[in-house]
Amino acid sequence: MVVRAKDALLADEDYRALAAFRHEIRRFQAFSEAHAGMLGLTPQQHQALLAIRAANANQATVGYIAERLVLKAHSATGLVDRLDALGLIVREVSPDDRRRSLLRLTAKAYDILASLSTMHREEIRRLRPLLLEIFDKLD
């Protein structure tokens, strides 16, 4: 659906708020990428570890990673293979379906993820008032 400018009814302040929101998202993304890189991870590897850690029991599969990271199945498989080669995950046969592999974090991955997540939580806490101010402008 294409919305014409005359139908959108956006004020200049709406555009400023949207631009500020996009800017803060990009800043957070750059923050995240830099900190993951300092610990030897790519942004996708960090995001995959976080998805595995946050998954419910018996949920973390290659398909789940593909869904959570918005990847094609073969790309998720390659990502999981690299995490396995780095010693950050292990594959276990699913007790429910022996054709499926469940992904589990190693102790090394838990340590890395805990460090990154602590930094990210602090950055999100720092950004919260700014984001709330932006959201208020969009109401």
From TrEMBL:
One of its GO terms (molecular function) is DNA-binding transcription factor activity. One of its GO terms (biological process) is response to stress. It comes from the Bacteria. Pfam families: MarR_2 (PF12802). Residues 11-139 form the HTH marR-type domain. This is MarR family transcriptional regulator. It comes from Sphingobium indicum (strain DSM 16412 / CCM 7286 / MTCC 6364 / B90A).
